[in-house]
Write a structure and sequence with these properties.
Blueprint (H helix, E strand, L loop, with lengths): L1 H19 L14 E3 L2 E6 L7 H4 L10 E4 L4 H7 L5 H4 L18 E9 L6 E6 L6 E5 L2 E4 L12 E3 L7 E9 L30 E6 L2 E3 L3 E4 L7 H5 E12 L5 E10 L7 E9 L4 E11 L15 E9 L6 E4 L3 E3 L4 E5 L5 E5 L2 E3 L1 E5 L10 H13 L4 E3 L7 H10 L2 E5 L22 H18 L5 E5 L8 H13 L6 E2 L40 E6 L8 H7 L2 H9 L19 H11 L5 H25 L7 E6 L22 H9 L3 E6 L4 E6 L6 E11 L4 E7 L2 E2 L3 E7 L9 E10 L5 E10 L4 E2 L11 E3 L14 E6 L10 E9 L5 E9 L9 E3 L4 E3 L4 E8 L7 E6 L2 E7 L2
Parallel strand pairs: 23-24, 23-29, 24-25, 25-26, 26-27, 28-29
Antiparallel strand pairs: 1-10, 2-3, 2-4, 4-9, 5-8, 5-10, 6-7, 6-9, 11-13, 12-13, 13-16, 14-15, 14-17, 17-18, 17-19, 20-21, 21-22, 30-31, 31-35, 32-33, 32-34, 32-36, 36-37, 38-39, 40-41, 41-45, 42-44, 42-46, 43-45, 46-47
The structure holds 2-acetamido-2-deoxy-beta-D-glucopyranose (NAG) (9 copies).
Length: 897
């Protein structure tokens, strides 16, 4: 009762205050328990203002000639926001090269903001940072608050006591952010992913906050549960939650406090209240752990296995004296009841479990925006796309973004493998000969420790956290490992901690990482994945793929000149600015193009080249995810694969499953087919069919139809199988008969249906060559395995044309999130297969509609076969057109209705 009365009163008083103070700016924080984000900044280079931090950080400065930017953003993001640079222009052709290395980016930048506070007695103020790149001096009202020796690194989050600096009325905060060198500083580099942004990501890229508390403050709750197994009957009845917070007594007297909290269950269930008393010695810190039983717990699952019920916990702390004043308030923390674990199996491969079930990681590596701009809707689309593709995990390699990303992942059931980045300062180890990072000195351990502490606190409560990799290409040395481990345990870390993403070595305190980083990163043929070497489908591949991800035509034209587009298909060995950075092994498309030209035939036009790329990309991602899925319970199980990468930091030509403008392409739909929950896949090595099941519940009899036809649509073989499927299990079925009879090219269709043959669970079509690709394993490099003989798919160039009818069927189904939903029917009217048909939805200007989700795309239809495809999108279908084209299908257009 007391709780709600006090809160009500506080709200009432706050309303009165704001009514009385219309003329003056509202105070940023006004009572104990308030925390507020600095809402925006004035940004300017030190080269444009006097070199006098004391003067610049006093309230009342004329900032007319400063840029105005939002609450967080790098220097480049701020300059784009102010129209100094235009990203559409920058991202076109090689325009970004012309920004050059200007002196202004080699000098510090200032972030300055004034705000109002009305401090009163017994109130304490903190300045809270979450990372400033590369490092910063902080001033307030003319005086220094923190120096760049302490405020270092993109993830260096600190609380600074600014109580003595705060004054009545206007206050000024000034941050001097120093330029970033990826080898010297703990920042966020793009390594070989793309060209560097001109500012190397310098600036206040994360929020800065001011908090007000009474005598005792509390840190955000960490959450642990003793939940392990959803089948355990005692755990079904009750699990125990432990909420942990650090209390700090800011006064030089003993203070007693009462903490009153609530856990709100999902679905507006009965709230659980708790009350605890603490006594704090003068100036001391106390780790307070509160155990609360939760009856009939709702269990949180990754998206493909169940729902994502979230509990939330919040608390208010009162001073236990006559005043009963509020001393602090916790932020509301959302958490899920679930368990994760990892272990290294007898093959030294890491395997994860979630809620006690073997969890095969099917994921991809995340790339932030090149200027580190964060757009919540964009990330939501990324996750929607990932779930649509059947991916369950996103890997953040040193790009940990913001708390909102984790909240989204919690709500959407996306698992996260976070960790530190490779190669740069983060891996400046004496035994790292590959990296360019400067070797660590004594002071670096403190900076890295602060970063670990801060990120661990931010990530700790999130049910989406699958694990944290404290190294990437290399493992941290023993001293750094201890620093990381200490920070993680100080933050009550409850998820797996893994030494690195590779098997090069490991610190004793963590043991082997169990993750392989043996390539490939560049093109390999589909049969690669069914071998028993390097990146093939066994163990845990932390970053690997055939390097594919060519955008479709509409996107290519958005960032390349006609000359560049010409080069793309006529000069297969040429370097391209929109591939990886110039210094990398991936600046050209040599290896990839050799594969395309040899297998599919020399391109005859840009259109022909892009179509061949899409076919190759589709084959590549499908085979990777199918092989890893097929081998999930093999004698050496495939425990996880992270496709390299999910997306790009800017418009890019490879290493992505959808392009920068959110258009899915061949690599997307190959992944989507290859990662289906229940699926049938073709094994290029044994020429047999795999039955795949990733679910934890679905089992029983199934029907499998295996049909092989030649290029003219004539039957080579047709088989029906009736296998039994089991949860999280794959098994090898019959070899496909007639593979030896293929002349030129043949098509293989695999269809999986339920026991009664009513519901189609998967439909999957391959184009197969009479001769296989032959890999030269012994000549493998860290990024690819060469091919000595290529499959021959050139027959695809001379297929008889197919006629296909396209219809829009009315649909009563509602799309997710209020999206429009339509069903498109395709009917092949010919006696030959209609091959690799792409459906493209465009607006009235002919521009691709994105985001968009098709149930399937790049379809191959059997002679006289009909298929229904669902599409979902935002907006009005009447304003749209649908374009259909394929390998042997003339382009046709249909108006939306
Ligand atoms: C601030 O400076 C601008 C230009 O430097 C000037 O036009 C403006 O009057 C100044 N504002 C105040 C309040 O002094
Ligand atoms: C940005 O550049 C593009 C292409 O160069 C141009 O069409 C657009 O108008 C520019 N936008 C602004 C705000 O100047
Ligand atoms: C960015 O970092 C690289 C090292 O990774 C360095 O060579 C370069 O000079 C830096 N750029 C700026 C503008 O400081
Ligand atoms: C069920 O959970 C309880 C509490 O964690 C544990 O003590 C018990 O051993 C578990 N029972 C089984 C069968 O695992
Ligand atoms: C929760 O705590 C209670 C009381 O300490 C204990 O009896 C019970 O076994 C715990 N439940 C679980 C699932 O550990
Ligand atoms: C912060 O500064 C104030 C004012 O100087 C002081 O009273 C307080 O003890 C300091 N420490 C903390 C942890 O707040
Ligand atoms: C309690 O709050 C009142 C009003 O804000 C303040 O004047 C008083 O000093 C506070 N007392 C303590 C012990 O914090
Ligand atoms: C696993 O690693 C350990 C320690 O590095 C090594 O001794 C052992 O031979 C490895 N086992 C396999 C199957 O590779
Ligand atoms: C593979 O390596 C061998 C021995 O180093 C070399 O003779 C051969 O030319 C290489 N093959 C290719 C295709 O590079």
């Amino acid at each position: 009762m007391r709780l709600s009365l006090k809160q009500g009163l506080a709200a009432f008083v706050a309303t009165l205050c704001s009514l009385n103070a219309v003329a003056v700016a509202d105070p940023l924080v006004s009572k104990a328990g308030d925390t507020a984000i600095i809402p925006g900044w004035h940004l300017q280079s030190v080269m444009r203002v006097p070199d006098d931090m004391a003067m610049l950080s006093k309230p009342g400065l004329n900032t007319t000639h400063w840029y105005r930017v939002t609450s967080r953003g790098t220097v480049m993001a701020g300059l784009v926001e102010n129209g100094m640079y235009n990203d559409t222009h920058l991202f076109f052709s090689n325009n970004m090269e012309n920004v050059g290395v200007r002196e202004i980016f080699r000098q510090p930048w200032l972030y300055r903001e004034e705000f109002t506070v009305n401090p009163s007695e017994n109130q304490y103020f903190d300045l809270i940072t979450h990372g400033i790149t590369s490092k910063a001096d902080i001033y307030m009202n003319g005086a220094p608050v923190a120096s760049k020796e302490e405020q270092q690194g993109s993830y260096g989050g600190h609380n600074y006591n600014i109580t003595a600096h705060i004054r009545e009325g206007n206050n000024c905060l000034l941050i001097r952010a120093y330029p970033t060198n990826y080898d010297r500083d703990f920042a966020q580099s793009f390594e070989d992913w793309n060209p560097r942004p001109a500012d190397n990501g310098t600036g206040v890229w994360r929020n800065v906050e001011i908090s007000q508390t009474g005598a005792v403050s509390m840190s955000p709750f960490r959450v642990n549960t003793d939940f392990k197994d959803p089948m355990n009957t005692s755990e079904k009845e009750q699990v125990n939650i432990t909420l942990t917070t650090d209390l700090i007594n800011r006064e030089s007297r003993i203070v007693r406090v009462t903490l009153e909290g609530t856990i709100e269950p999902p679905n507006s269930g009965e709230p659980i209240q708790f009350v605890r008393n603490f006594r704090l010695m003068p100036g001391k810190k106390l780790k307070a752990s509160i155990r609360v039983g939760v009856r009939n717990p709702h269990i949180w699952w990754p998206a493909s296995w169940g729902s994502q019920p979230l509990y939330s916990a919040h608390a208010t702390m009162f001073i236990d004296d006559d005043s009963q004043n509020i001393s602090d308030r916790s932020r509301s923390v959302k958490f899920g009841i679930r368990s994760t674990d990892s272990s290294v199996n007898s093959h030294n491969d890491t395997a994860f479990t979630v809620n006690g079930h073997p969890f095969e990681v099917l994921g991809a590596g995340y790339g932030p925006d090149i200027f580190l701009r964060y757009d919540e809707n964009r990330i939501r689309t990324f996750f929607q796309y990932m779930l649509d593709m059947g991916l369950n995990t996103v890997r953040l390699e040193g790009k940990q973004e913001h708390p909102e990303l984790y909240e989204l992942a919690d709500r959407m059931g996306m698992m996260i493998l976070a960790g530190w980045e490779c190669c740069t300062k983060w891996e400046g180890w004496e035994y790292n000969d590959d990296g360019t990072g400067f070797k660590w000195e004594d002071t670096d351990y403190k900076i890295a420790g602060a970063a670990m502490l801060h990120e661990a606190e931010m990530m700790q409560p999130h049910p989406s956290m699958l694990g944290f990799l404290v190294g990437s290409d290399f493992w941290p040395n023993d001293r750094a490992t201890k620093v990381y481990n200490d920070a993680l345990s100080q933050m009550d870390w409850r998820n797996p901690v893994i030494a690195s993403a590779s098997k090069r070595g490991y610190p004793d305190d963590l043991g082997p990482s169990g993750m392989k980083m043996d390539g490939p990163y560049d093109w390999v043929p589909p049969n690669y994945w069914y071998a028993d070497k390097l990146g093939a489908g066994f163990g845990f591949g932390s970053e690997l793929g055939a390097g594919v991800g060519t955008p479709e035509m509409g996107t290519l034209k958005r960032f390349m000149t006609n000359d560049e587009l010409n080069t793309l298909w006529t000069e297969p060995d040429e370097g391209l600015y929109h591939m990886s950075s110039k210094i990398s092994s991936f600046y050209t498309r040599k290896i990839y193009n050799r594969g395309i030209y040899s297998r599919y035939g020399r391109p005859k036009s840009l259109e022909d080249y892009v179509l061949k790329c899409q076919m190759a990309d589709y084959e590549a991602t499908r085979a990777q995810f199918e092989a890893y899925s097929a081998h999930q319970n093999a004698s050496r199980p495939a425990t996880g694969a992270i496709y390299w990468m999910l997306n790009s930091a800017w418009p890019n030509l490879h290493w992505q499953l959808f392009d920068y403008y959110l258009n899915p392409m061949g690599s997307y739909y190959g992944t989507k087919v290859g990662s289906r929950m229940e699926h049938v896949a073709y094994d290029y090595e044994t020429e047999s069919v795999w039955l795949i099941n990733h679910s934890i519940k679905d089992e029983g009899d199934r029907q499998v139809f295996v049909d092989l036809i030649d290029a003219d649509g004539k039957k080579i073989s047709s088989t029906k199988l009736k296998p039994l499927t089991l949860p999280t299990t794959s098994k090898q079925l019959h070899p496909v008969s007639g593979i030896g009879k293929i002349k030129g090219v043949a098509f293989l269709r695999l269809v999986l249906k339920d026991a009664k043959g009513k519901h189609e669970l998967s439909r999957n079509v391959y184009w197969l060559s009479h001769k296989p690709d032959v890999l030269d394993w012994s000549n493998s490099t860290w990024y690819h395995t060469p091919v000595t003989e290529y499959a021959d798919l050139t027959k695809l160039e001379s297929l008889a044309p197919a006629t296909v009818k396209m219809n829009v069927k009315s649909s009563k189904v509602k799309g997710q999130n209020g999206w429009t939903h339509r069903v498109i029917e395709l009917e092949n009217k010919s006696k030959v297969p209609a091959v690799f048909m792409h459906l493209n939805a465009v607006d009235t200007n002919g521009k691709e509609i994105a985001p968009i989700i098709w149930s399937d795309n790049y379809i191959t239809l059997w002679p006289h076969e009909t298929i229904s495809l669902a599409l979902q999108f935002q907006g009005d279908f009447h304003l749209w057109k649908l374009e259909l084209s394929g390998r042997n299908v003339e382009k046709q257009t249909l108006r939306g209705k």
